[in-house]
User: Fold these one by one.
Assistant:
Number 1:
Amino acid sequence: MGMDEEKMQEQIFILQQLQAESEAVQRRIVELELVQAELDKTIESLEYFESLDGSVEALMNLGGGVFAYVDVKDSKKMLVDVGAGIIVEKQVDEAIETLKRKKEKVNENIAKLEQVLQQIVGQARRIQEELAKAQKESKE
């Protein structure tokens, strides 16, 4: 007693859904990895600022590929966007802490998404095996 045609069509449809889902999850993981890389870069810059004494000359990105040299008098205070467009002034070390926490959250999200991906892949594999078996049986 094999799988009927209708059941096979249904399974193939589910398989396509799973494929689309897994692609969406993979895209999200890539986006989060980019966020992570950006956070790393910012943390690195802030750690550099923290190691400085007195004023420092920095490059400011004015957009459109234009940079300006600016004198940073107080390199120990930073304005940090804490979300929802709210900007707060923080000491450099606090800013680093904030970003490290953000990075941990991003890490957790990546880990969760990778688990979801495993589940989707596992489910897809089971359906593929069922379909292969059903096709073999229908040929016999």
Note: The helical segments are 5-50, 92-139.
Number 2:
Amino acid sequence: MPNLTVENVGTFEVNAGKRLVLALVEDAGVDQLHACGGNCACTTCRVVFVDGEPAQMTVAEKEKLAEKGLSGVRLSCQCLVEQDMSVQIISRLEGSGRPDSGPPPDPSIQPEPEWTSKA
């Protein structure tokens, strides 16, 4: 089982292949935002990888980050925990002014992933 380290929170064992957004919420107990329900439509689930960033990303993530002009971040709804990784949370419910974190994300990446290199 891979270890997920969340800065200022702790380190947690996560089932391999689990969506990062779900690992943050369910395993680490973080109030990670996911306003669109983990469908790569809103970018509220942003994280910064400290270590163990996946080499690939979905085409949907790449396009959404480019559309929003974002760099140096990844969308936790589009990443799988397949190896040890360390992240910094930057989009939390606390202080956001939102009424909730968002609808529960599906266990599988949505939209159906088409993988590409992150470069």
Note: The mean pLDDT is 97.
Number 3:
Amino acid sequence: MPDEPMLKIRGLNSWYGESHILHGVDFDVHEGEVVTLLGRNGAGKTTTMKSIMGLVPRREGAIAFNGNETVHLRSDMIARAGIALCPEERGIFASLSVTENLMLPPVIAPGGLDLPTIYTLFPNLKERAGSQGTKLSGGEQQMLAIARILRTGAKLLLLDEPTEGLAPVIVQQIGRTIREIKKRGFTVLLVEQNFRFAATVADRHYVMEHGRVIDMIPNEQLAANMDKLHDYLGV
């Protein structure tokens, strides 16, 4: 791993109004890694993603992306710096076609994937290129949400619960896609409830509880820590 992380978070606190959600979150993501945030519902995983993107009303602490502090930047400036969020709710524009949804976000840097490459990664989307967002299945909408940010040239991709509620065959396809985009030089921070899926794609896992990171487990040590992980996650 390089000495300096691509994403370095230290002492991150976040609030929604009077609700103090994150309590001093610390973790690193190195270039080329796939890293997961694991934890029970309400642990602070999604708030961490939104805090990185500047979508939380109040943040304190340090968030460095490629050595540049971003904690006080607006969300649009963070996006243009090279971070992209694929939210849990997907955000597909129902009245636009698949191709129109793909072309909507601006390209912010070289290195994004072109449409032919995206359609090779997601053959389902190629077949549905002219279909409106409302006509897509849940799995197709998730593929479209991931594919859309791959065009932009962002190098750090934040994927929030990309497999939730999807059929096993679609989950497998999303796993293949994450492994492929890693090979292409993208870095991924993944919020995931399904740690068995996470184990097929990730290099390391951070466990969150009550708005804090309480453990880090390298993927190769996951099997040896399964009892502890079950205890953390309540499964």
Note: The radius of gyration is 17 Å.
